[in-house]
Amino acid sequence: MIEFGPLILTLKLSLVVTVLLLFIGTPLAWWLSCTRSKLKPFIEALTALPLVLPPTVLGFYLLILFNPTSPIGSFWINFTGESLSFSFFGIVLASVIYSLPFMVQPLQSAFENVGFEIREAAASLRASPLDVFIKIVAPLSKRGFLTASILTFAHTLGEFGIILMVGGNIPGRTKVMSIAIYEHVETLDYTQAHILSGILLVFSFCVLFLIYTFNRRHPLNVG
Amino acid sequence: MSDKLKINILKKLGRITLKVNQSLPSKGITVIFGPSGSGKTSILKLLSGFMRPDSGIIQMNELWYDSKNKVSLPAYKRPIGYMFQDGRLFPHLNVLQNLEFAKKRAPKAIPIDEIISVFELESLLSEYPSVLSGGETRRVALARTVLSAPEILFLDEPLIGLDRARKRSIIPFIENLVKKFDIPCIYVTHDIEEVCRLADHVMLLSSGRVKDFGSLDEILPQLDVATLDTDTKLSSLFSGMIVSQDNEFSMVNVDIGGAIIKVPDVSRRYSGKKIFIRINADAISIALVPPKKISIQNCIEAMIVGISVDAQSPYALVKARFSDLEITARITRSGVESLKLTEGKTIYMLIKSVSFDSQL
Fold it and tell me: Which of chain A's residues have a Cβ under 8 Å away from the Cβ of B80?
């Protein structure tokens, strides 16, 4: 008897978070890669914060922020009629923040690797900054996009602490694989824990393996 | 059509301060010449908008930069073309796609087929930049720049890193480009041979300052001295015209500013051809009367316009003028003393050897 609920929920969460972060992380990484603003180190530090903070700390603050009595939490309730904490959207939001560096950092270094030289060349041919990004920088950063997406997806797949803090353990809404496994172990149901852990292990490996193989077979026309 | 490029800018660059106040011609090739570190490339970057001056004005028809009125057109809005040292082709696009990138964004259409044939790129169109040779890369980069229909073209040491044969093969393309498409060029180099071959006008730059500006012929005699480049020997450069040939003795007579100089003709050049000759400052002796019975063939009557003496050195530099040209000789200080050389004195300069400047 395999529970498919947590598996499907986990995949859904990872996919949604990866897509959302592609939209949020790309402009942020692009800005970071070309700005000379004094704000840059501040924003960079803020982006990297989830790498060093324990998920419980981040989760704790988010829990307070999502609380129906807080401005954000109450706005959300008024807007959707649902609580932000212990909801699927709540864990999406938490994961977006928690996985942000995994999207932004590889993208930023990919964009920086393209180099100002090529950007200058494009600008001298009358390409506007957006044009330069779409036609030159983004295609040259294909690998960066792939790496950032894999890392974000895989990182969200394995999330535990922050989801437990913000989402709790509600089947179909917030009960992801890692939490289901934790629950099975707590109740000494090792068979189910084995099955879910095995699925997560094999699945994660297969995704990574496939993508790295693809990456190798289709080298970019660069260099 | 296009106006002069007016520059009056100030920019601090590390140890030197770039200070340029000069109008550049809107026709032909203007070479910015100077030793490395003199700020040549920085001028192009400031003009093109990749770098911002500390203060000043840049204007060509339209105002590109004005610190007082806070005008600063971004690079992509300036009507410029920029050919970088290394070509900077887009690595993910093939040659044709690189060309089309420029064409699509150009304010006026230039027939791509014509450019492809002018730059002889027919066989390279589907290649990617990574497989192109150095010379091919420069040709594609030049073609791409022309396709963007610039009103002025900046060339930043476009031949650097190429061997002589390659350089020789690219130069006609650059000459052609100026003639055929009538685009004024600002050309940065520290290679005297490129200056001689390509320049219409020369701006001499030294430690961020314009030392001189003028036509090639005006600037030529002081090129070597001006750069104070320790690598090259002190010598004077002249452009001249071959007026006659002496086949029996394999010599040619070259007219430089009215004076005729006999030069050994190694390669059998033809009369009427413009050539460059170099006279080493150490190959000149000075006499007060025209000497007779001497093996030296070339003797120029000239007037001393300057003597620079360094008390630390046994040598002195004597600068003399004939016609409109200046020539520099290096003789000993004791020689200056015993001949009682002073400014304004007429002397005879005996030139022991003359070399054709290596031709590109």
Answer: 124
**For chains A and B, what is the number of CB pairs under 8 angstroms?**
67
Look at chain A and report how many structural domains it folds into.
Answer: 1
The domain of A79 spans 5-217
Chain B contact for A140 (CB, 8 A cutoff): yes
Q: Check pLDDT > 80 for residue B26.
A: yes
pLDDT digits (tens, 9 = 90+) for B219-234: 877 666 444 444 445 7
* Six-digit token string for B163: 């061997």
Flag whether A223 is in a domain: no
Confirm if A151 and A103 have CB atoms less than 8 A apart. Answer: yes
Give me the mean pLDDT over the A53-58 stretch: 89
- Cβ–Cβ gap B148/A124 under 8 Å: yes
Q: For residue A83, is it within any domain?
A: yes
Domain end, chosen from B227, B256, B279, is at B227
Burial profile B189-212: b = 16 or more Cβ within 10 angstroms, e = fewer: bbbbbbbbbbbbbbbbbbebbbbe
User: Is A222–B92 a contact, with Cβ atoms under 8 angstroms apart?
Assistant: yes
- Whether A223 shows a pLDDT value over 60: the answer reads no
Residue A18, classed as helix, strand or coil, is helix
Q: Do A127 and B148 touch (CB under 8 A)?
A: no
Residue B79's CATH number: 3.40.50.300
Counting the structural domains of chain B, the total is: 2
In DSSP terms, B148 is beta-bridged to none
